[in-house]
Amino acid sequence: MPQIPTLGLGTFRLKDQQVIDSVRNGLELGYRHIDTAQIYGNESEVGRAIAESGVPRSELFVTTKIWTDNLGADKLIPSLKESLHKLRLEQVDLTLIHWPSPKDEIQVAEYMAAVLEAKAAGLTAQLGVSNFTNAHLQQAMEVVGAEQIATHQVEIHPFLQNRKVVEFAREHGIHLTAYMPLAYGKVMTDPVIQEIATKHAANPAQVALAWALQQGFAVIPSSTKRANLESNLGALNLTLSDQEMAAIAKLERGERLANPDFAPQWD
């Protein structure tokens, strides 16, 4: 199985020409991991940007996510086929369950079995979960086995470090992907991060990404600006000291940015 590239391109909130430009710029700059979702309403545009990029399919890692309306055993695979049609792909590299079923109306066992079936049918190379509590993750492991869960994608940034979730996933050998790693740009104005950035002749976004990367997380920042997309790649060449890592660890303040009304009871 291809490893999940550590630095990917998120497409949340990007629509129409904006997402086409972002993905096209990203691919030109060297990004090879593109993250989308059914609910983003941009799979067709992402597919178009990929198709027009000329980048060989074998070099790309494309993730999509199953929306809560499609978690039923009768809906999951048809919805994934529709996503593939929009993305102009025969297979995605990774399919995530985007959120646990609201109020657990549909059991974890039902949708994990369905996504495993999608993998067996060749619609997705790997499967994973997103926004799961530790209890949901435990249930998912009981159905498919921890070794089948390629990643758990959760909100992680210096102001929400999600330590209980991180610790539980690590205990079971499950990889983590940090979404919103820049906290919607809030890292840019944090004095601790700014000071570390100055020392490294870097910018705060690069520091926040390096902090996540050094912990072994994949990160999927998004940007509409080519210069920022390019700059974010600089995080791959930045190494923070133990003291700097510890200073950023102290910024935890439980600041959760993705908390819709259907979210589970967080750990």
Automatic annotation (TrEMBL):
Entry annotation: catalytic residues: Y40 (proton donor)
Assigned keywords, A-Z: NADP, Oxidoreductase
GO biological process, one term: methylglyoxal catabolic process
Domain of life: Bacteria
Pfam families referenced in this protein's UniProt entry, alphabetically: Aldo_ket_red
Binding-site residues, substrate: H98
Domain NADP-dependent oxidoreductase intervals: 7-252
Keyword ATP-binding part of the UniProt annotation: no
Site residues (Lowers pKa of active site Tyr), renumbered to this chain: K65
Catalytic activity: hydroxyacetone + NADP(+) = methylglyoxal + NADPH + H(+)
GO molecular function terms noted in the UniProt entry: methylglyoxal reductase (NADPH) (acetol producing) activity
PANTHER family membership: 2,5-DIKETO-D-GLUCONIC ACID REDUCTASE, NADP-DEPENDENT OXIDOREDUCTASE DOMAIN-CONTAINING PROTEIN
Record-stated family: Belongs to the aldo/keto reductase family.
Name of the molecule in the record: 2,5-diketo-D-gluconate reductase B
Organism, as annotated: Phytopseudomonas punonensis
Lineage: Bacteria, Pseudomonadati, Pseudomonadota, Gammaproteobacteria, Pseudomonadales
